[in-house]
Design brief:
The complex is a heterodimer.
Chain A lengths: L4 E3 L2 E4 L5 E6 L6 E7 L6 E7 L2 E4 L8 E4 L6 E5 L8 E8 L10 E2 L3 E5 L1
Parallel strand pairs in A: 2-11
Antiparallel strand pairs in A: 1-3, 3-8, 4-5, 4-9, 5-6, 7-8, 9-10, 9-11
Chain B lengths: L2 E5 L2 E5 L4 E8 L6 E6 L6 E6 L5 E4 L2 E5 L3 E6 L8 E9 L2 E4 L3 E6 L1
Parallel strand pairs in B: 2-11
Antiparallel strand pairs in B: 1-3, 3-8, 4-5, 4-9, 6-7, 7-8, 9-10, 9-11
The chains are: A mainly beta, B mainly beta.
């Protein structure tokens, strides 16, 4: 079974530019999550999709961040315009149930975003 | 306020030297506590989920335990390949709140 795939693995952009991150969850997983880790801090929740609907977007930092999940398959996270404080590692995770009691949440390898 | 605190921040062990990592939590209504392992450049890799005080789970040299206020991850006779950052997270109504992690280095 393929895992959660994220790309790009790294992205370096200038302040003010736009970047789009993509996440392909495990096939059949209705629940998709975005998290991020900024320098020196713990991993923090951004938002949760159930199929194509946003279940919880309480962790989104501001309106420069836009997440979509068209058709309930892959998801994109767009940052526009990017600011220096957006630098960090963005993780995507998926699960079959809201809380997959047997296997936890499966994470991708992350996208390291550097804004210069 | 919900909080997850891990200690120590870093741990250096000799191969074979057993030790324990701590994760203390303050949450209203624990729905599950997760342990993950993270290697450099990779995402968190699931290890265990614990749901109720007194529960224990084991996998190879790792054993996780849970009380009402904290969880321990015991590493028995570690090997260099156990070197990683170990993350604890609690389930808050379908989303995870992570601790800062414990970086473990096991030297031969």
């Amino acid at each position: 079974e393929a895992g959660v795939t994220q790309f790009p693995s790294h992205s370096v952009i200038e302040k003010g530019q736009t970047v789009t991150l993509r996440c392909d969850p495990i096939s059949g997983h209705d629940n998709l999550y975005w998290y991020r880790r900024v320098m020196g801090k713990e991993i923090k929740f951004l938002l949760h999709f159930v199929k194509e609907s946003k279940q919880d977007e309480s962790g989104m930092p501001n309106n420069r961040f836009l997440a979509e999940r068209t058709g309930g398959t892959y998801s994109t996270l767009k940052v526009q315009p990017a600011e220096l404080e957006d630098s960090g590692v963005y993780f995507c995770a998926s699960s079959q149930l809201p809380r997959d009691r047997s296997y936890g949440y499966t994470f991708g390898s992350g996208t390291r975003l550097t804004v210069v | 306020e919900d909080q997850v605190t891990q200690s120590p921040e870093a741990l250096r062990l000799q191969e074979g030297e057993s030790s324990s990592l701590n994760c203390s939590y303050t949450v209203s209504g624990l729905r599950g506590l997760f342990w993950y392992r993270q290697d450099p450049g990779k995402g968190p890799e699931f290890l265990f989920t614990l749901y109720s005080a007194g529960e224990e789970k084991e996998k190879e040299r790792l054993k996780a335990t849970l009380t009402k206020k904290e969880s321990f991850l015991h590493i028995t006779a570690p090997k260099p390949e156990d070197s990683a950052t170990y993350l604890c997270a609690v389930d808050l109504r379908g989303k995870l709140q992570f601790g800062a992690g414990t970086q473990v280095v096991v030297t031969p």
